[in-house]
Amino acid sequence: MRDSDTIPFSHLGDNHLSEDIESRPAALEVLNGDQQGTIYTLDRIMMTGGRLPESEIYIEDQQLSRRHFQIVHDGASYYLRDARSTNGTFLNERKLDSDSVLINGDVIRVGKTRIKFISGNDPERAKLDKSVKESTVDKLTGCYTKSYLNVELNRAITRALADQTPLCLMIFAIDNHSGILKEYGDGAAEHLLLEAVKRIKDGGIRADDILARYSDDEFILMLEGAPITRAKEVALRLLSLFENKPIKYVHGDMETTLSIGLADLKPDMQNAIEFFKNADYAMYEAKRESGNNLRIFGVSNFDTDD
């Protein structure tokens, strides 16, 4: 879990031809940079793009204004509008000086970022529909993917720093996953992960918390608005879901626990990398102590009964 790619998430659509196609909104696809492959569905009358994390079209490019451009839909066509940006909005490399109708395949450039306009009647749209789900939802567990989490975490960090609200990151490993895989095979290991995730979703977290699968047996939980004391309560509750509570399987009970690392966002952190490293380090400390354990980054001699 040492890499930290930031990649796509998505949506789709348009407004011509067949009834199925006509019902879909158009889409934007980011063509370069860290967000390459990200898809944004143009499913509102007006959508704003820029560096502001709350933007419907959020672009991580320091050359953009906070509110840089807008896409306006009048029911028949989509229009590109510059939102009085500092560096301008370009359509097919021509700087906008007024609203311009978007045509399938048009390329918008804002700062260093190039964005393609895709209408609903473009054959490429069907492929995007499939890739949207694949880029946001893990096929096995139904949790979010690493790429989706990376995008959302960066947005959450920006919000938390701007609003001075707490944000905690929890990384946990399903203990004994590799042992189950070795002893019983893929089917048992997959069953272990599915049942573990079900327990966690049903009894350990809020419905709107972002839970992502980060590697084979490691998961990340993002807790917006939760101070470290509250995040610790959540972590202890997750531990209790597995301690002396084996997962049933056709070949017998499977014992498993969690190794949990926890970190809170510090005011001097400007991106997800250090945040990840802190929670990751704490998780490996918990693992080193034979699992079934919680470690909070920066807290020594931590007692789970405190």
Blueprint of the fold:
Layout: H1 19-22, E1 26-30, E2 39-42, E3 46-50, E4 57-58, E5 69-73, E6 78-82, E7 90-91, E8 94-95, E9 100-101, E10 107-110, E11 113-118, H2 124-136, H3 146-163, E12 167-174, H4 177-184, H5 186-203, E13 210-213, E14 218-224, H6 228-240, E15 258-264, H7 272-288, E16 293-296
Parallel strand pairs: 3-4, 15-16
Antiparallel strand pairs: 1-2, 1-11, 3-5, 5-6, 6-9, 7-8, 7-10, 10-11, 12-14, 12-15, 13-14
Helix pairs in contact: 4-5
Report on this model:
This protein is 30% helix and 24% strand. With 306 residues, it is an alpha+beta fold. β7 (90-91) and β8 form a beta hairpin. α4 (177-184) runs antiparallel to α5. It is elongated and about 65 Å long. The relative contact order is 0.12.
Could you list some keywords that capture this structure?
alpha+beta; single chain; five-stranded mixed β-sheet; 30% helix; elongated; 7 helices; 306 residues; six-stranded antiparallel β-sheet; disordered N terminus
